[in-house]
């Protein structure tokens, strides 16, 4: 497969670089998730304390109910923002991994094409049909890979649009129900 030790060393170097890229991507994503979780936990703790103080300071049942209703919307909005952030981090990480995989596939295709060309030059007479069949099979496999890759990207885009729409609908529903509940109490 490798004609010289230099080619073997170059292939190993490329593999190590690819693994380092993937590892760095994984660590960066883990770091972003950890920071997001710590910030969210800190925010929830601070909000919980502030909300508890506000609820304990209520003078009557009406004020208590009004405070509870008012505190729901910011909590839902923060939960939606957290989930949106998690989704963004995961999507960006997946995108980076996809770029690495696509680069690897492209390199593999170049290597296979080069090996086939070398094999065709040194192949015995009459083997042109076999070489052409292998090249055709590789082209078909690459075409199938491209189609699946494009379909996966389209599915991801549709899923992202659906998540955004559902998020917006949730926030609007909570806002509307909070306003409706506040309006009923005021009347």
Q: Could you explain the architecture of this structure?
A:
It is a single chain. By secondary structure, this protein is mainly alpha-helical. It has one domain. It contains three helices and no strands. The longest helix is centred in the middle third of the chain and has 62 residues, at 61-122. It is elongated, with a radius of gyration of 29 Å.
- Strand tally is 0
Portion in strands: under 5%
The geometry reads as elongated
Question: Mind telling me the C-alpha Rg?
Answer: 29 Å
What is the total domain count? 1
Q: What string gives the helices and strands in order?
A: HHH
The whole-number mean of residue pLDDT values reads 84
Oligomerization state of this entry?
single chain
Structural class: mainly alpha
Biggest beta sheet summary: none
Low-confidence spans: pLDDT under 50, at least 5 residues?
none
Helix content range of the residues, please? over 70%
Question: Count the helices. How many?
Answer: 3
Q: Give the distance, in angstroms, between the N- and C-terminal Cα atoms.
A: 82 Å
Name its key features.
mainly alpha, 93% helix, single chain, 0% strand, 187 residues
Task: Tell me the layout of helices and strands.
Blueprint: H1 5-56, H2 61-122, H3 128-186
Helix pairs in contact: 1-2, 2-3
Compose a concise summary of this entry.
With 187 residues, the protein is mainly alpha-helical.
């Amino acid at each position: 497969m490798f004609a010289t030790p230099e080619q073997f060393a170059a292939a190993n170097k490329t593999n190590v670089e690819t693994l380092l890229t993937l590892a760095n991507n994984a660590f960066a994503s883990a770091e972003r998730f950890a920071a997001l979780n710590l910030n969210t936990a800190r925010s929830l703790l601070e909000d919980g304390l502030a909300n508890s103080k506000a609820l304990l300071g209520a003078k009557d049942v009406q004020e208590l109910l009004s405070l509870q209703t008012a505190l729901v919307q910011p909590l839902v909005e923060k939960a939606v923002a957290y989930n949106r952030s998690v989704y963004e981090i995961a999507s960006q990480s997946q995108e980076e991994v996809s770029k690495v995989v696509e680069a690897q596939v492209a390199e593999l295709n170049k290597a296979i094409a080069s090996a086939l060309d070398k094999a065709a030059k040194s192949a015995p007479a009459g083997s042109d049909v076999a070489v052409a069949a292998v090249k055709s099979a590789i082209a078909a496999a690459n075409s199938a890979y491209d189609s699946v890759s494009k379909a996966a990207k389209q599915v991801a885009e549709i899923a992202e649009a659906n998540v955004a729409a559902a998020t917006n609908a949730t926030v609007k529903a909570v806002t509307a129900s909070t306003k409706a509940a506040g309006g009923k109490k005021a009347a």
